[in-house]
């Protein structure tokens, strides 16, 4: 069972990465080193209090357990984002933050003797877990090759640009980084007294958003024939749906397509209708809690309403921090992006989106 407690960690370093993103490094004391051991592609949940209200956010680790000494996350500003803007504006070296130990399954077993082609697709801050993944593959699986296909708006919005350039030089022949920009920076050139000048774009790389056509182009260029392929993707839902369909058309099996669903869209929600509330029995942290849920109220929302402290993070059905298992009764999930069909069949639920469809339900978080 994952450790869903929070521990206070001091910020060891704050680095400005772009004008809208910072990288935080945490100082993990010796007594918590084992607790905060992690795998490539995992995430941390941070907890803050604003005016008496608790806010939690999940941020992917950009550090690699094989290459980096410190635990690091990258945080990009979100428009009107309470926590992301607070981190960018106010967090300094020495600040204490409550942090849940690493979680997540956005990774794959690595073997120094195997050779694979890894295609990592992302846009914007979706590059954060990709940096962790690619650095770990490069170190732990030297016979494999990695292609990072990374979309951004402009040159100035590319996160980890300098580090990616250094890694591509250091691992030449093993790592290829392909950038595509939807709005490359323009500058004016020529003209008379500021008139009749023309717009010039200095960017000579790929242009446009990641789509089926350029995914196929990148795959064709960097796939080594019969070498086994795995792909990881993190970004807007539309991009990932397109990428998933494209890789399936190229012959990849579901087990080799890994998706991180932290960026989700409203239309991913399927409302559960007809729920009038249920009597719920919840086992959590070794104790049983009984409550009556309101109509169309999720199990997690009900627990928070009565001031219990269940494990959770994203609140959108995109991570697996709030997972529980049905003991009796039934429920439907409004959104489920973090569990496989097989896990759902076994009775696992994301409590943040699970609405009971029976009069009584019993679930267990201690699984």
UniProtKB/TrEMBL annotation:
Residues 278-367 form the 2Fe-2S ferredoxin-type domain. The keyword DNA-binding does not apply. Residues 4-109 form the FAD-binding FR-type domain. Transmembrane segments: none annotated. Keywords: 2Fe-2S, FAD, Flavoprotein, Iron, Iron-sulfur, Metal-binding, Oxidoreductase. GO terms for molecular function: 2 iron, 2 sulfur cluster binding; flavin adenine dinucleotide binding; metal ion binding; oxidoreductase activity. It comes from the Bacteria. Gene3D superfamilies: 3.10.20.30, Nucleotide-binding domain of ferredoxin-NADP reductase (FNR) module (3.40.50.80), Translation factors (2.40.30.10). Its cofactor is FAD. It holds the Pfam family NAD_binding_1. PROSITE patterns: 2FE2S_FER_1 (PS00197), 2FE2S_FER_2 (PS51085), FAD_FR (PS51384). The keyword Flavoprotein applies. This is Flavodoxin reductases (Ferredoxin-NADPH reductases) family 1. It comes from uncultured Aureispira sp.
């Amino acid at each position: 069972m994952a450790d869903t407690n929070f521990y206070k960690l001091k910020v060891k370093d704050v680095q400005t990465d772009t004008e809208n993103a910072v990288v935080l490094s945490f100082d993990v004391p010796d007594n918590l080193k084992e607790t905060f051991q992690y795998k490539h592609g995992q995430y941390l949940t941070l907890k803050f209090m604003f005016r008496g209200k608790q806010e939690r956010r999940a941020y992917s680790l950009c550090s690699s357990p094989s290459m980096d000494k410190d635990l690091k996350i990258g945080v990009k500003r979100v428009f009107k984002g309470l926590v992301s803007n607070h981190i960018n504006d106010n967090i300094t070296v020495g600040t204490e933050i409550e942090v849940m130990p690493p979680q997540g399954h956005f990774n794959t077993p690595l073997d120094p003797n195997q050779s694979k082609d890894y295609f990592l697709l992302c846009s914007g801050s979706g590059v954060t877990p990709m940096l962790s993944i690619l650095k770990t593959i490069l170190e732990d699986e030297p016979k494999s090759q990695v292609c990072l296909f990374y979309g951004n708006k402009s040159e100035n919005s590319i996160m980890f640009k300098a580090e990616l350039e250094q890694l591509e030089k250091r691992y030449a022949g093993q790592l290829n980084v392909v950038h595509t920009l939807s709005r490359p920076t323009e500058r004016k050139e020529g003209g008379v007294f500021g008139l009749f000048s023309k717009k010039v774009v200095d960017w000579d790389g790929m242009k446009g958003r990641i789509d089926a056509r350029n995914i196929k182009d990148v795959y064709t260029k960097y796939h080594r024939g019969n070498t086994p392929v795995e792909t990881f993707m993190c970004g807007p839902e539309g991009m990932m749906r397109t990428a998933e369909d494209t890789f399936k058309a190229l012959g990849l099996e579901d087990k080799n397509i890994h998706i991180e669903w932290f960026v989700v869209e409203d239309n991913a929600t399927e409302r559960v209708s007809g729920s009038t509330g249920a009597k719920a029995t919840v086992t959590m942290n070794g104790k049983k809690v009984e409550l009556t849920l309101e109509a169309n109220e999720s199990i997690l929302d009900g627990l928070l309403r009565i001031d219990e402290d269940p494990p959770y993070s994203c609140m959108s059905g995109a991570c697996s921090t709030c997972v529980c298992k049905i003991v009796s009764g039934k429920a439907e999930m409004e959104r489920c992006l973090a569990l496989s069909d097989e896990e759902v069949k076994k009775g696992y639920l994301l409590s943040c989106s699970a609405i009971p469809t029976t009069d009584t339900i019993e679930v267990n978080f201690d699984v």
